[in-house]
Amino acid sequence: MTVKTPRPPSEQENRAAPEEWVADPNQAGPALTDKQTSRPAPAPEPELGMPNQPLGQAEQVPNGKSLLLDTRARQNAEMEEKVLANLQKQTGRAPGWLNFSWLKHLVLGLCGLSLVVLATQALSFISLLQGLPDWARYGGYGLMGLLCLLVLWSLGRFLISYMLLRQSPRISLTALRSLEQRANLRQKAHDLLKDAQEQLCGLLTDYPLKGRKKKKTQALGFSDEEIEQMAKVRKHLLELASEESTEAWLMQFEKTFLEPLDQAAKKRITRRAWLVSLKTAAAPSGFLSAAIVVINAYQLMNELCAIYQLRTGGMGTVSILLRIFVNAFAASQMEEWMDQATQGIIGTAATGTDAAAAFFKVLAGGIMSRAAEGGANAFLLIRLGAAGMHYLRPLTEKTA
User: Fold this and answer.
1) Tens digit of pLDDT for each residue in 177-192?
2) Are 329 and 119 spatial neighbours (Cβ–Cβ below 8 Å)?
3) Of 143, 203, 134, the residue nearest 167 (C-alpha)
4) Residue 41 placed within a domain
5) How far is CA 241 from CA 102, 176, 247, 254, in A?
6) 307 and 262 in contact (C-beta within 8 Å)?
7) Which residues contact 341 (CB under 8 A, 6 or more apart)?
8) Lowest mean pLDDT: which of 112-116, 219-223, 336-340?
9) Above 70 in pLDDT, residue 130?
10) How many domains does the chain have?
């Protein structure tokens, strides 16, 4: 009798159900080798989300961490707003509520204030003319009419320049450097620098240095040699615009092209200040002094706009017109103020006989009063010119 020995399972069968044999050791099955019993456990699948979190649900951040992230985001947003507001302040841009419509009415209103000052002084001047002979009275009327026409002419030229010229970009490199120090605002700073460079390239291209427009530049005090040098500098800067870094190009623009414009502007301011000083010192009434100051103020601002080939921005225009109004009002009252001041000084200093004291008061008082009036009006006009340069200059501070 032959005993049949059980056939060992094939390798395929061993691979088919090893877990079943291990799960039920009492069940008959093939003998497992050491290699099979020591096989490594399968690697655990990666967990999704937080522990005990349903599949498909976004990871939940703990409340404390979420509050910290919100606080940091809010602080960053507030810091960005402060930096951008500082940039807007340094560039002299008008706030959002001061749109063009409001600005236009405000400009016209401030111009009207200067005319109101002149009108009140004109009435006083007319009453003064009433006591003069006919030939002097009619001559005074003619002089008053001529001055009024000059005031309107200078005001009209200023408004035309304001409307036709491009606005000064008022680039603040200090503010842009502060933007570059923050990673999230670095790209914005780069874009602003490139935009500023493009605007200044447009200014260089349109600046009148050749043809008929060259005569206008010569009338502003530029010599032929200076104009020729500026033309060479313009060509060089336009060629470097695509080669050098933006900030290095702006420094070159500052040093080679903008500084000559600053020097010409300072010369015009000094010249106008001397004219105002002499004319107001010789003017016999407050109306004439106020008219002289207003005419020269608007003409000075028109010359500065022509030198820079730019106009002031919104807040700059408001500031300039307010200064012109203050200058006109001060000029209309300057004679009376200076007479009172000099009489007080001379009265305490005069000694001797009554006749000598009276002569000294009249002579010294008149000279000191006129000199002080002319000097004060010149000082106010210099301050106006400095403010005009500040608001017209395309770079708000020295780059070097």
Assistant:
1) 665 556 556 666 677 7
2) no
3) 203
4) no
5) 37, 19, 11, 14
6) no
7) 369, 372
8) 336-340
9) yes
10) 1
pLDDT band at 397 (very low <50, low <70, confident <90, very high): low
Give the domain range for residue 130: 103-392
Report how far residue 210's alpha carbon sits from residue 231's, in angstroms, rounded to the nearest whole number. Answer: 8
Contact at 8 Å (CB) between 162 and 321?
no
Q: How far apart are CA 293 and CA 221, in angstroms?
A: 22
Q: What is the per-residue burial (b if ≥16 Cβ within 10 Å, else e) of 264-280?
A: bbeebbeebbebbbebb
For residue 149, being part of any structural domain is answered with yes
Place of tokens 């290095």: 248
Q: How many CB atoms lie within 10 A of CB 263?
A: 13
Q: What is the pLDDT of residue 298?
A: 93
Q: Is 273 helix (H, G, I), strand (E, B) or coil?
A: helix
29's tokens? 């099955």
Residue with the two structure tokens 């033309």: 231
Cα distance between residue 395 and residue 249, in whole Å:
12
Spell out the residues 6+ positions from residue 281 whose beta carbon is closer than 8 angstroms to its own.
370, 371, 373, 374
Sign, CA dihedral 163-164-170-171, equals positive
Summarize the chain as % helix, strand, coil (round to 5).
75, 0, 25
> Does 22 fall in a domain?
no
Q: Is residue 111 within 8 Å of 276, Cβ to Cβ?
A: no
Q: What is the mean pLDDT of residues 317-336?
A: 85
CA pseudo-torsion sign 169, 173, 178, 179: positive
> Has residue 56 been placed in a domain?
no
**Cβ proximity of 221 and 227 under 8 Å:** no
Residue 357 buriedness (CB in 10 A; 0-12 / 13-18 / 19+): middle
